[in-house]
Amino acid sequence: MTALINDVPLNYFFLCLAGGYLLGSLPFGLILTRLGGYGDLRKMGSGNIGATNVLRTGNKPLALATLLLDSGKGALAVLLAWLIFGEVSLLYFAGGGAFLGHLYPIFLEFKGGKGVATFMGTLLAINWPLGLACCLTWGIVTMLFRISSLSALGAAALSPLYGYFIFKDFPLAVFATILSVMIFIRHKDNIRRLLSGTEPRIGRKTP
Description:
- By secondary structure, this protein is mostly helical.
- The protein has helices spanning about 10-25, 30-35, 50-55, 60-85, 90-105, 115-125, 130-145, 150-165, 170-185, 190-195, and strands spanning about 5, 10.
- Strands 1-2 form a two-stranded antiparallel sheet.
- Helix 4 (about 60-85) packs antiparallel against helix 5 (about 90-105), helix 4 runs parallel beside helix 6 and helix 6 runs antiparallel to helix 7.
- Keywords: Acyltransferase, Cell membrane, Lipid biosynthesis, Lipid metabolism, Membrane, Phospholipid biosynthesis, Phospholipid metabolism, Transferase, Transmembrane, Transmembrane helix.
C-alpha cells in the first residue's frame, strides 16, 4: 500500500523534491561565464556562482541572463510540479528542492550559491503577488543602497511577514521563513561586512 500525506502518495513528494533539486543544481552562472570566455567564476570576485558575481566580469547581459536562469529554475520546478501533479502541497517540495539544489549542487560537489534568485523565482511561481512584493523590496533597497546582499536580506526577511500578514497564507509564510533563514546563513560573511561597513556595492569589482 502506498503511503499517503493528505491523500497524496508519499513518493510524489520525493519525486518533486529530487526533480527540483536536480534542476536547481544547474550552475548557470558558471556555465555562462565559461561559455563567455571568462573562465571559472568560482575563482573570480567573491567566488559565488550567482548573478552579482557574474556582474563583476563587467558583462551586464551575462549577469542578467544568469539572474533570469537562476530564478527561472525555481519557477520551472514549481510549474512542472503543478502541471504534472496538480497538488499545491507538492509545489513547496519542488521549489524547496530547486532552492537546495542551487545552494548545494550535486554537480559542483555541493558548493553552490546563496539562492536569492532561485528563492525569488520559486515564490513568484507559488504565489506571484508575494514574489512580486519581494522583488519590489529587493529593487527598492538596491536603488537606495546599491548593496546586493542588503537587498537580498531585506527581501528574505520581509517575505514571511508578507506571506502571513498581507496574504494570510500560513503554509507559505512557514516556507518563506525556512528559505529566508537559509539565505541569512549563506550570507553570514556579507552580514559581517555590512556591520563593519566594508560590503562592496553593486558594480564595484572585487579584487
